[in-house]
Specification:
252 residues, alpha+beta, Muramoyl-pentapeptide Carboxypeptidase, domain 2, two-stranded antiparallel sheet, 25% helix
Length: 252
Amino acid sequence: MKRLSVISFIFFAFFFTACEKNTDKNTESQHFVNITDVVPDAILEIRYYSTYNFIGTRIDGYLQPVALLTREAADSLKAVSDDVMRQGYRLKIYDAYRPQCAVDHFVRWSHNPADTTMKRFFYPMLDKPVLFEQDYIMAKSGHTRGSTVDLTLFDMQTEKEVDMGGTFDWFGVESHPDFCGNPLTNEYMGHYDGNMPAENGEINAFQFHNRMILREAMLRHGFKPLDSEWWHFTLENEPFADTYFNFPVEQL
């Protein structure tokens, strides 16, 4: 994640933007689609609509448990879905478009050091104040541009999530795609070579390989990865690379 500037940090500490209710079809949401309208095989587990997330409450702007993307990103995700379906998997989506008011909610939460309700589930090895410093939370998110998705694989044979050796939104080096392996060569190395200590052990070859199945499918169909989260991908040719939207997440 990109490091937050001091000016932006101060600004977002004292200001937040309410999500703009979509009442007109000719609004910014006209460029978006419901993912399940384009990718009907996708499974949704919208964590920020629920209380099972790193904050522990429903996040501002998530009015319904749906997932939205720009049409371009959704079309590319359909190609990914068809790809992994042939391999025996479905896509399971945790988050997609994220309104700016939701990001502002993250920022406000970060300024309350006493609120560590979900620490043991998502950041047990980190002190809350370092979450900004280490770029786990930021005042601007690629999700808000509408072409970024957080997802995993669901095994159609076992009817369970694929074992990735870690969970969505785990704040730690264990979430890095190069944890215990080289994602450029798909080589499992059995240890972590980064400059930060791994606090949650290591992942095995099977788990690393599973991460690579998802990664390779996303890369084949026009998405680019993030170097700190194995589940996070952005459409390389995103249509709104400089636009941060703020309409709520709800059925279009």
